[in-house]
Structure formats: C-alpha cells, structure tokens
Amino acid sequence: MASVSGLQGVRGAFVHAPLLGEVDFHPDALIAFDETGQIRHVDDARAEDSIQLASRLAEAGSLLTLDEGQVLLPGLIDLHVHAPQFPQMGTCLDLPLEDWLMKYTFPLEARYSDIAFAQHVYDLLVRELLAQGTTTAVYFATIHQDASLALARRCMELGQRAFVGKLSMDNPETCPDFYREAGASAGIASARAFIHAVGELTAASNGLVKPVITPRFLPSCTDDLLSGLGELTGVHGCHVQTHCSESDWEHGYGLQRFGATDTLTLERFGLLTDRTILAHCNFIDDEDIGRIRSVGAGVAHCPLSNIYFSHAVFASRRALEAGVDVGLGSDIAGGSSPSLIENMRMAIHVSRLLEDGVDHRLAKAERGREGARISSREAFWMATTAGGRALSEPIGLFREGYRFDAILMDARRPVFPGMPAGERGQGIELIDRLVYASHAQNIRKVWVDGRIVVDKGLAATAR
Ligand code: GUN
Ligand code: FE
After folding, report:
1. Can you tell me the distance from the alpha carbon of 30 to that of 50, in angstroms, rounded to the nearest whole number?
2. What DSSP element (H or E) covers 235?
3. Residue 37: which pLDDT band, with cuts at 50, 70 and 90?
4. Is 209 left (phi over 0), alpha (psi -120 to 50) or beta?
5. How many angstroms separate the alpha carbon of residue 13 from the centre of ligand 1?
6. What value does the CA radius of gyration of the chain take, rounded to a whole number of Å?
7. Is the per-residue pLDDT at 60 higher than 70?
8. CA nearest 292: which of 303, 302, 279?
9. Comparing C-alpha atoms, which of 462, 450, 452, 456 is closest to residue 33?
10. For residue 205, is pLDDT > 80?
11. In which band, very low, low, confident or very high, does the pLDDT at 461 lie, cut at 50, 70 and 90?
12. Which of the residues 41, 369, 395, 432 could staple to 388 if both were Cys, CB 3.0 to 4.6 A apart?
C-alpha cells in the first residue's frame, strides 16, 4: 500500500474492460492516485489495506465517496479528430470525400493562418470534448505551425491528454494552391520544427501533450515528403497518424499510384509502427490486417463519418478477432458528433447492419455478413482499453501504474429510469445501458492525470 501523503482517493463503483468482450465491475472499490496522476492502489474497499488507506485519506480530506448510482469509468479516448473542422460539424456532408475536401474542408482549414480564429475554435473544441468525457484526443490540426501549437497549448492549459499533429501535405495534384506546403523539404522541416516546439512547450509538464507526425493521407503527399516523414519517425520515435483505405476513391488512388495497399505503402515509407494510428481502414484486406497486427499499429474506427465517406462498413469484428487494437474516432467533421458515447452506439449499429444487410430484396441468407456484429462490451473496450493499447500509453484501465483518467457517470437518469436501488443491474447490464442510453449530461466529473478538469458536483442529474 502506498503512503498517504500526496494521494487522493475515490471510493465507490467502477467498471472497466481489461479483456475484449468482458466487463469487470467492482461495486465498492478504493482507487488512489498520487500527485502526478499515477494510480497507486486499486482494490476492494473492504480489503484490509483499503480500509486503512481510506480512513487516512478521509482524515486528510482527500477521499471522494461516490453515491449509490454513480459509477467511475475510464476516460474516453478519441483516436481521430480534426480540430479545425469543428466549425463545420453537422454541415456540409452532401458530397463524396474528395469533393468535400476541395469544396468545404480545405478552404476552412486554410483559415487557421489566422491565429485568433484558431485560438477561438480550439478553446471551444477542447472544452466540448472534455465535457463529453474525452480525456484523450488524437488531433489532426492544419499545416500551420502557430495554430497547431496553439491547439497543443490549449490542451495543456485545459488539462486534456492530447496527441497533436501539424498536418503534412504538399502534392500539387491533389492539394489546392491556397492550402499546401511549399514542397517536400519545407514540409519535412516544418514537421521537425513542430516536434521540437511541442517538446519545449511541454517540457515542464507530465508528457500530457505529444506531437504526432501527420501525413494527411497518401494522395495529399509526394513521395519525397512521405520518405522524409518516415525518416523523422525513425529518428524521433513519435506517434504517426494518417487516413488509410478510407473510401473506394482513396483506396483505389493508392493502388494505382503505388501498386500496393495503403498499409504496405506506409510500411515501405517507414510510417507504419507500433505508434501509428490508421483512421478508417474500411477497405483493408487480410494481409493488411496481418501487417497492422504484427507491427502493433492501431486503427481508429470512425463509424459515423464512414456513413458519409466510405461506401462500406468497417468490419470491426474481423479486425478485433485478428487481434488488432481497434479504437474509436469521432472524425469531426466527417463525423457529426463530438461524443464518443454516440460513436460507441454507432459502431454497434453499423455492425448490426453489416451482419443483417440492408437490401430487403435480397434473400435473408444473402443479405449480410454472418457474425459481424459487436456488442456494447466490445464498443466500450474500443473507446477505453483499445485506445490506450493503440497509443501504447498506460491509459484506458484502472490499474496500478496507469494514469488516473476517469469519468464519473451518474447512472440514475435517464439510464435506469425509475429503477429502485438494488435493481439497477451491474456488469454487462450496466454497460449495455450506459452505452445505449447515456449522454454527456450523465457525466458529473472528469479527471485527466488525477486532475479534475470538469466538475458538475455530485448531485443527481438535473434534467
Ligand atoms: N481524408 C483526407 N482528409 C480527410 C479528412 O479531413 N476527413 C476524412 N474523413 N478523411 C480524409
Ligand atoms: Fe479524418
């Protein structure tokens, strides 16, 4: 048991998902974490060492005791968000990906040369995501050094764990004149400078914010830029993020230009590592899955955005069964919701549509793909445990040595409407209801690295 000095504790129910497909529910536990945010104690509250620690924490005024009906969850991990696209969230979804980029998205992203605009949007976005229970976000920013740094700074100030990517894109054939880097060497220099600048910005912090090497996607980058970014990745060991085999057009573009699938091309350029997050992956084949699995890269499944841009449902069960770390991404603004709870639901819904098929004119046996569905347990695993695994960070679980990133849900309303205490279910039933029926209003408190970043008090949800 850890010494009490500098520790804070929470006593009450918690649930997390160490194993895919299972949930681990603890009705009365004590979790304690130190001043750096590291979890130092997790045990049943009635265990001898917990009883002693809890009484010392209570004496020191450092113990929070949850009400019956409240439950602690690991903070949600959004593996794919385009921060600059927040202003167009919920609009502009009428065109295919390649036209949407040209007509709406590149012009919007180009506006982030205006630092005041960037600061305004990024402040709103980081606050919104924290209120939605997103304790970790993996961001695409824009090609602008200053605005991307402003995003990193705001995440630090507001206390969100963040992986921030200054975008790299230089291909004159696919990027407009008003929004691309001056050339491959300028792009490489800019990515390198950003890594150093984030290092300086965060030197005094706990590693809460980290830089990500971010080739937008293969079509937007020249070969020279891709190789230079691959070399940078080797030198700095940074995380990498990009879009992968997202749509018919995008997947086909890669096949035609490189004669290989996106994952193989990324691997050849040194961009596929155990710290790479691949967004979408709808068109990956079994060899791609094997490659992602053996390298240890992660997938950001973005179920809401895929409805608009992908032309196919990501076969999440197939990738999960192959052992790939499939987490979730909101993909704002291809995705029209900032909520990972909403994206958990959507991941389940689209998997059900894939399993059953949707065209009633086909016979039932031909309509869908057998065994494609995922459950609420798997969706919860994706939003928490898988996110941590994909990033190779000690987050997503309540475990000694992990970071205390958590959300406190009040499960009484509307999740268990009118249910008397004692009949509200535990474990699987609790996760079913939280995933299917909760929303941001159920979140009472949010911690990142042991620090409270959203606090609505402990009172029952006012509606
Ligand atoms: N592919 C390249 N850029 C983008 C983007 O901004 N959003 C999505 N969904 N796909 C992309
Ligand atoms: Fe995206």
Report:
1. 6
2. helix 223-236
3. very high
4. beta
5. 39
6. 22
7. yes
8. 279
9. 450
10. no
11. very low
12. 395
Which residues are near ligand 1 (CB < 6 Å)?
A: 82, 97, 101, 105, 216-217, 243, 246, 305, 309, 331, 334
In the reported structure, the alpha carbon of residue 105 is separated from the centroid of ligand 1 by a whole-number distance in angstroms of: 9
Of 140, 216, 243, 245, best ligand 1 pocket probe by most atoms within 8 Å of the beta carbon: 243
Burial class of 324 by CB neighbour count within 10 A (0 to 12, 13 to 18, 19+): buried
CA of 243 to the centre of ligand 2 (A): 6
Q: What is the pLDDT of residues 305-361, one digit of tens each?
A: 999 999 999 999 999 999 999 999 999 999 999 999 999 999 999 999 999 999 999
C-alpha 246 – ligand 1 centre gap (Å): 8
Residue 436, Cβ density class (10 Å: 0-12 exposed, 13-18 middle, ≥19 buried): middle
Q: Hey, whose CA ends up nearest to atom 11 of ligand 1? A: 243
Percentage above 70 pLDDT, the chain:
98
Name residue 446's amino acid: V
118-133, pLDDT tens digit by residue?
999 999 999 999 999 9
Among 93, 95, 101, 309, which residue has the most ligand 1 atoms within 8 Å of its CB, making it the best to mutate?
Answer: 101
Residue 43, strand partner residues: 30
Q: How far is the CA of 196 from the centre of ligand 2 (A)?
A: 25
Q: Residues with Cβ within 5 Å of ion ligand 2?
A: 331
CA triple 241-247-249, angle to 5 deg: 110
Complete domains list, the chain, with CATH: 8-74+396-462 (2.30.40.10), 76-391 (3.20.20.140)
| Residue in this structure with the two tokens 């299917």, named with its chain if needed | 436
Residue 140 alpha carbon, nearest atom of ligand 1:
6
Tell how far the Cα of 80 is from the centroid of ligand 2, in angstroms: 6
Asked whether the CA dihedral 374, 380, 383, 387 is positive or negative, the reply is: negative
Contact at 8 Å (CB) between 392 and 275? yes
- Measure the CA–CA gap between 158 and 275, rounded to whole angstroms: 25
Q: Give the number of the atom of ligand 1 that is nearest the alpha carbon of residue 333.
A: 7
Q: How far apart are CA 410 and CA 406, in angstroms?
A: 13
Ligand nearest to the CA of 244: 1
Atom of ligand 1 nearest to the CA of 331: 9
What pTM does this model have? Answer: 0.97
Q: Which atom of ligand 1 is nearest to the CA of 335?
A: 9
> Could you read off the pLDDT of 90-105 as tens digits, one per residue?
999 999 999 999 999 9
